[in-house]
Fold these 4 entries.
Entry 1:
Amino acid sequence: MKNNPGKKKKPTVAKLKKVADKVFSDYIRQRDGYTCFTCGKKGDKTSIQNGHYVSRGFNSLRYSERNTAAQCVGCNIFRKGNLDEYALRLRQKYGSDILEQLAAEKKKIKQFTIRELEEIIKKYDHARL
């Protein structure tokens, strides 16, 4: 069987997740004005990252705007998320029960479909400032 050169390959979940991660990360960093949520350090798109309070390995919270915020490399990587300060600031921003809400959401098992990832990409690519 020959490959059809005119036929486009369907994107895989893994490839779409990579694109979704990029556009979502760009959106969060722009939303937060390239300012670290946990220490207040200002930066730019190369020095500020998209930090997750609950690891992005938990798909149920991977693209949650309430679970993510701009963070400098120092806080996100070297201080392993600076989670004590992150928790304090999450409570200030979203209310005292935010950590419990995130913990409940974390327990949910989530597998993305191609369609869901395409919708995430469209939403956050168009939402970037």
Entry 2:
Amino acid sequence: MILEARALSVSIGPHRVCEGLDLDLAPGSRLAILGRNGAGKSTLLSTLAGLRAPDAGAIRLDGKPYAELGLSAAARLRGWLGQDRSDPFASTVLETVLTGRHPHLSRWSWESAADAVVARDALAAMGLSGMEDREVHTLSGGERQRVAIAALLAQQPKLHLLDEPLAHLDLNHQIATLGLLSQRAREPGGGIAVAMVLHDPNFALRFCDRALLLFGDGRHAEGPVAEVLDAESLSRLYGHPMRRIGNFFIPE
């Protein structure tokens, strides 16, 4: 099991995100985290990433607590894509993606030719071949998002934690990104595990095998998408009547 959470309770001030959450993510798992704005999806994901402490409960990454692993070992196992994009220094697309290789380098090492190959492969996977020398500041919002995902791919972690990975992407790149993550999770011989914050339950239904619903008051529901995603639960989740037509959920 790459990620385990036991009796996890998370809150933001007086707001309860979840209480008593048990979660297991094995290689091949694709978990969608769904909920209304302000439900605490990003807060929970950052807690699972070891970036903030839970109120109660335990989290283990590859069988060990984050404190025992240390920052470098954790970064080799767990990749994190947050919502914030900050590029304070001028850098090229390739240089930016190469930052994903840093957890694999020793203290005084430079990126090798092999690291550059990994970075270029990640750019190709995100449809960005030929843009290696572009300055990041000249890119569109969607292109910068794809560069950030490429950096995560170049990191090659076992666990991918992505907070709204589809932000700024057009429909074509949304489908391509979800398809790529799903494909890599299901690779023979042990793929990655993915947990991501999504807004569209139809994407969760199509590309994920598990779903975690956060109702905004500490209650949650987690399990296989076929069991968790139904019109009744989504109506309660979003506070708006939903119905299912074939393989799609639509608002009434």
Entry 3:
Amino acid sequence: MRVTPLPADQWDDAVEQALSGLIPAERRNPDAAGNLVATLMRHPSLARSFLRFNFHLLYGSTLPARLRELAILRVAHLADCEYEWRHHVAMGREAGLSDDVIAGIERGAASDDLDTAIIAAVDELQRDTNVSDATWTTLSAHLGERQLMDLIFTIGCYGALAMAINTFGVEPDQER
């Protein structure tokens, strides 16, 4: 680990203020919040800003949860981000992704045009920082403008998060 989770005895008013209104009081401790949030608490003001954006993508996005999780899992796979992968496999299953679809995400394969386009968008953004016209046309046939915007920002946000997790050395949370 390059950046360790903030120990419980250092969770002060700045941490409380950073997390207030974002996560319930009972989860505002390093054990319940998990290693990622506890690591981000090393920089409370950055963490608050990032988490507000991230929580919009998770809970306020116009993108259906299934498609969001498909995109995030592809990002996590390409970034070889075990922490992000583990968290979002569970969330993906809750959103309706089957084990076969999740295995396909790892291979870069999907069974329909929209899922294929989501995977292609992730791959193209990671490789070229742009979505090809062909992929955009397919996505546009299925998603509205705001959904497209949420998709691109989801891919970018989770790409940046994977970079931070991998660079900081955030370890996966223990199974509970």
Entry 4:
Amino acid sequence: MATRLGELLVRESYITPEQLGKACEVQKQHDGPLGAHLVSLGCLTEEALLAYLQKEYRLATVDPLDMDIPEE
């Protein structure tokens, strides 16, 4: 899915092909999700990535800071 996600982000102009290449290199060295590497490299913000995933895959996003969660 990482390559597909990267290709979709390039297609939608969220990132450049060069940014995708760099993030893929880092991912090969350190494992982990491609999106996390794109964010840590400053290629896009976490908010932009979440907005894209929400739109593309019709996923709901929830900010736990906006929720009233009981302590227990």
